[in-house]
Amino acid sequence: MKALSSILIACIYVVTLQNCSSDTNTTSDMQKPKSAIEAQQLAAKHEIVKPHREAITEDDYGDNDEYWPLPPNNTIGTTEAVALNYQNLNEAFRGETTASAKYAAFSKKAEEEGYHEIAMLFKAASVSENFHANNHKAVLEESGEIVAEFNPEFTVKTTAENLSCAIEGEAYEISTMYPNFLTNAQDAGNQLALMSLNYAYKTEKKHKILYENALNTLNTNTVTQLTSVYYVCPTCGNTYVGKTPKKCCISMTDTESFIHITLG
Q1: In contact, 216 and 179? CB cutoff 8 Å
Q2: Where are the alpha helices (DSSP H) in the chain?
Q3: Which domains are present in the chain?
Q4: Residue of 254, 10, 49, 23 lying closest to 142 (CA atoms)
Q5: How far apart are CA 203 and CA 213, in angstroms?
Q6: I need a labelling partner for 15 at 20 to 30 A (CA). Which of 116, 137, 161, 221 fits?
Q7: Mean pLDDT estimate for the chain
Q8: 264 three-class SS
Q9: How far apart are the C-alpha atoms of 15 and 18, rounded to whole Å?
Q10: Distance of CA 80 to CAs 67, 122, 186, 187, Å?
Q11: 157-192 in b/e burial notation, b at 16+ Cβ within 10 A?
């Protein structure tokens, strides 16, 4: 957890150096640390700078979109904006924690039904969602927020139904949840939140396509044509099928750090 938080903080320092060298469920009892406003003032001084990205040869699943970078909004977030941002991060943490546990259970079910390739996909997604949850939690804790633990609740059905459930969940996150949360984080001037939410948003777009493809192979009895080799970036949760580039297409993390997914 501390390592993930350190990674996110280090990225903010990079943004600061780049700017120095060039002209870029309502909760009333949410804890407000004394240092929160000071932190927002510091973050608001710096625009979001798009990092250098190497040429990408594989299908990037729509990686280039309007949410990276977001238009700079160099204003200090109001108390309400900051509180809403914390609420969003807590909701995202709970959602990603639930998704991680749910996909792990879906993976076990797929393996039981003889769909090894789909089991591997669910396992990779479970690992990815866990990184997202930990990133969101790290941002909250860095701000002095207390993140309550909870027991995820979900239902495991057939693999076909589980894939449909996963597709529905990812569709909601990329069409509604994360775009709204990113906008609110921008209003709050929270650079760490923008980074963590953006990591999840871009990765979920890939997951949705992978699930849709898996469901199609299930319906056409061609599941064995799917790959069973997956890699996950430990910084942003980006999920790769079969092969990897030199660096993560989202966070620029070196391939050597990627997690090779196995069922063991």
Answers
A1: no
A2: 2-20, 36-44, 79-112, 116-142, 159-172, 178-188, 191-219
A3: 2-17+81-226 (1.20.1260.10)
A4: 10
A5: 16
A6: 137
A7: 79
A8: coil
A9: 5
A10: 22, 37, 13, 10
A11: eebbebbebbbebbbebbeebbbebbebbbbbbbbb
